[in-house]
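Q: What would this chain look like folded?
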Amino acid sequence: MGETDNGAEAGEQDDHDHATHDDHHRHDAAELGVAVLTVSSSRSLDDDPAGDAIESVLEGTGHEVTIRELVTDEYDGVQDAVDRFVEREDTDCVVTTGGTGVTPDDVTAEAVEPLFDKRLPGFGELFRTLSYEEIGTKVVGTRAVAGVADGVPVFCLPGSENAARLGTGDIIIEEAPHLAGLAGRGEDAE
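A: My prediction, written as structure tokens:
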């Protein structure tokens, strides 16, 4: 009799956990409008393998790239572009590529972090963990960051094509719909 009672309780707990999980994900965005920003002083939109990789992964999974731009490695230009993207009505998420290394002109993290209302440190941690398999200890030189700015998740990836594909395909497409839905919940009430 005790086993049956415990089994029933376990089944009830599983149902409760499942309902809580479903309830937690009810705000997930099915399709995202994503702004993509390439930060580079040496590339153009016609020669932008990392930006192309991000766009390909996003569109291949049913999301829409609503705007795509390139700015040079310059603090104000990066910050202004991301701030402008966050304010767009058709933008649920922003992805940047480039400017996350350690050279003097790598300023993406410095330019974008002041815009964050909330930081998402797990993004950079997970990105570096996944990247370690490919580039080993060189991961210490990447400063991939993410956060939420005015209700919009912003992800800053390195400028290599492989890094852009990894970060977008293995992390962003998995988590951005959930994060965008949660971060934008306050806007639904307005």
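The helical segments are 2-24, 49-60, 75-87, 108-112, 121-135, 161-183, 185-189.
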